[in-house]
Amino acid sequence: MIGLSRDQSNSLVLENKAGKKSVLRNRSFLFVLSGYSVSLLGNTFHSMALNLWIIQTTGSAKLMSTVLITHLLISMLFGSFAGTVADRMDRRTLMVIADVCRFFLVLGIVLLMVIPNTPFYLIILLTALIAFTSLFHAPSFQASLVDIVGKEQVYQAVGVLNIADNIVRISGFALGGIAFAAFGGVFAITVDAITFLLSACLIYLAGKFPNPIKKSVEKKSFRDDFISGFRYLWHNPIAKSAVLLSPMLFLFFISSLMLIQVMAVQIWHANPLEFGLIESCIPLGYVIGSGIILLLGSKLKSRGKWIIMSIMMMGPVYILLSQVHSAALALPFILIIGFLFSFSTLIINLSLRLEVNSEIQGRVFGTLGSLTSVAPPIGLAVSSIFSDLYGPSIVIVYCGFGILCMGVLSFIYLKSLRKYD
To answer: What pTM, to 2 d.p., does this model score?
Structure first.
């Protein structure tokens, strides 16, 4: 090749053979992904350690539930607000600010934990502030992904992100519990604070990445941007489908996870090994599904039908699982549920990134995050009550019928999603 050195020629040949460069060679993506993963690890540490500390020091489940309700209320009330801010500011800067604020706020909780007779309302106040600042991090990251990697690599990026997300969540709760048991709540939450500071450093090291804020010449007010986000969600068929399906899907899915744990103890009488395998089957199935979607990439066609089919198929699997009477027989059904859940949620996520304009993705993911964070606790509360009254098997049957009906109704009424390729 004229004008190119041997190294440049070889590099170009390799890139042509590969078709496109791997997302794992994108420096900004790797730094931002690392920052997100570390930040998520801190969140899991925080929730686990703080809840255990409250139970240990006060013995009050009511106070622990107050912390949970505080998180839910903040997410529900301010998710769309935070998403709008993410669409109006430099998203990288907003992520760094959010992480630095969380670092100092979590250190404040550590200080309150070591001071005797600390008023509990101060813990609640700092918890509310941490939940509020966290809302700015998630939509900023989610909305930046397509700009960092480009639409041609979004399948790879989202697949890698979801695999990392599951690994961090699983290991985070386990490590948080181990750290609390070995060194105490103060140590565990101090580690949480450090993870937020490390996350801020990693995102800063990612360097500037494309940040298309407002292509229009006319500068709109915050109120106009806020309202336009809801208007967009209502009129864009893919965004509307995601807002309708995702919260209900998470409601049924998270509720069923709790019911499976109850069945493992009460009905299957699972030993520690079997219980561990049950706990690992959902994330394992999810990672397998994510890996397949990652490998298929843009070759995956009829994406709307895959979403609806996976939802419809989950219903009968739940119903069959409710009839199983041993942990060993339950394992393949639980693995399939995790696999199908990845196809429904991950493809929805991919479709949003491909079809929604980057400049409005903060509002879309902010609103969606609020709804999906509120729905699961409601489902858990309702299903736990009915599980105590009628048994977990019956409630899982109703969850299965609920998901099946949701899939059928989606097929009938969400025509734009059904035809989405």
So the answer is: 0.74
